[in-house]
Amino acid sequence: MAGNKKPQSNHDVGKGQGHAYTASPTQTGTRQGPAARPTAPFHFNSLSLQYKIGIIRNGITKKQLEAIKSETDFDYHTLSSVLLISRTTLIKKKGDEKFDQPTSERIMRFAEFLSYGREVFESRERFQAWLRHPAAALGGRAPLELLDTLYGIEEVKKELGRIEYGIY
């Protein structure tokens, strides 16, 4: 069955859908075709579901994670807490080495979350400051403290939605 075929490389993700683009969520560039969208680090929300699935199945590389990390002020300790992977593993992984599928999925979810937060705050700095400050709507906890579970991410995303639409 063609739909179960695993992409051969990052460049194969998305082929057969009428367009070609690189699967690296961390490269600045564009997809070719009539509905071209940027693939820069913080445009994850604009990627198609099939594209995201292909990236996750293929495995996110350490280089891709580093590009995401470079767009934040998070250190390896913070990333390891959010991604549920040891700090040592994050540090020891080399450039083109790939994370396993569950870790790649957590990285993708986290990158999507960062993308959304940055869109809401229209500033990386303001968003990251907000992540570290306790929020009454989150039980007095800082949003960053809740990002280690899918339920926590969803709750923080709901709070971002309230901020985006001015509902306090």
From TrEMBL:
Residues 1-11 have a biased composition (Polar residues). Residues 118-166 form the Antitoxin Xre/MbcA/ParS-like toxin-binding domain. Pfam families: Xre_MbcA_ParS_C. Residues 1-39 are annotated as: Disordered. This is Antitoxin Xre/MbcA/ParS-like toxin-binding domain-containing protein. It comes from Niastella vici.
